[in-house]
Design a protein that fits this description.
With 247 residues, the chain is mainly alpha-helical. The chain has 9 helices and no strands.
Length: 247
């Protein structure tokens, strides 16, 4: 009985204070490192930023894929709550959409969006189809150093999550299959539909476009004040591009 109790204790016992503190440091460091360098950044960089040994990181996250998935899930959940808050607290459709975008960009969420929700296609492409050889990226394409492994392929009004594997080198295997991205896209879709139906949002703007705005309007600059100012200015410009214009 004593042996059985000892074997099961680690599963239910809370983390020690020092272990909990290390976990928080690792998660904070992972958000910073992946936000700056993309999900391709090595675990050693995360450990260095957290000021712990790489073995400490691997004790909590047995593979990089597990850590990446944890960060992506947290970021997706945060964005979903921001979208819900905007829906619930803003009566005017455009105000709700712009509030969501401003809140998300200010939080730096775009740097940690799972690549699977950033699928931007060109006219005539089928969802999931590769970009035509020699084709140029859509205007405002995301910096691949920050949001790696993006693939083009969401057509107009299509915002499905593509649970495609992108290879183990960047710790992205299976990302998007269980991150709650479907829920995020559904809530943001309601924001987009309302703004479009009100006539304030361009008819050709999709959910993928809105998420692309979040990703592109969060530049990584060394000075925090400069970064905030640049993000706010860039978002103002992008919001003007989303608005419909009288014929």
């Amino acid at each position: 009985m004593g042996t059985a109790g000892a074997a099961s204790a680690p599963r239910s016992a809370p983390l020690r204070v020092d272990a909990q503190r290390n976990l928080e440091h690792v998660l904070r460091a992972a958000r910073e490192v992946f936000g700056e360098l993309g999900y391709g950044a090595p675990m050693e960089d995360v450990a260095r930023r957290a000021r712990v040994g790489v073995g400490t990181v691997y004790r909590r996250f047995p593979s990089k894929d597990v850590l990446v998935r944890r960060i992506a899930e947290e970021e997706t959940s945060r964005l979903t709550e921001q979208a819900r808050t905007a829906l619930g607290q803003e009566e005017k459709p455009w105000s709700a959409l712009s509030r969501f975008l401003r809140t998300s960009v200010a939080s730096g969420a775009g740097r940690l969006l799972p690549p699977q929700v950033l699928r931007v296609g060109v006219d005539g492409e089928e969802p999931g189809a590769p970009a035509a050889s020699g084709a140029t990226s859509a205007p405002g394409a995301v910096d691949e150093a920050r949001v790696p492994q993006q693939r083009q392929g969401v057509g107009q009004d299509d915002f499905r999550v593509v649970g495609q594997r992108s290879g183990g080198a960047d710790g992205l295997d299976g990302l998007g299959e269980d991150t709650g991205a479907v829920e995020l896209l559904e809530v943001v879709g309601r924001l987009v539909d309302r703004a479009r139906e009100s006539g304030e949002l361009r008819r050709d703007v999709t959910v993928a476009d809105v998420l692309l705005v979040i990703a592109t309007a969060a530049p990584s600059l060394p000075d925090a004040a400069q970064q905030a100012a640049a993000s706010a200015r860039l978002l103002d410009i992008l919001l003007e591009g989303l608005r419909s214009r009288p014929a």
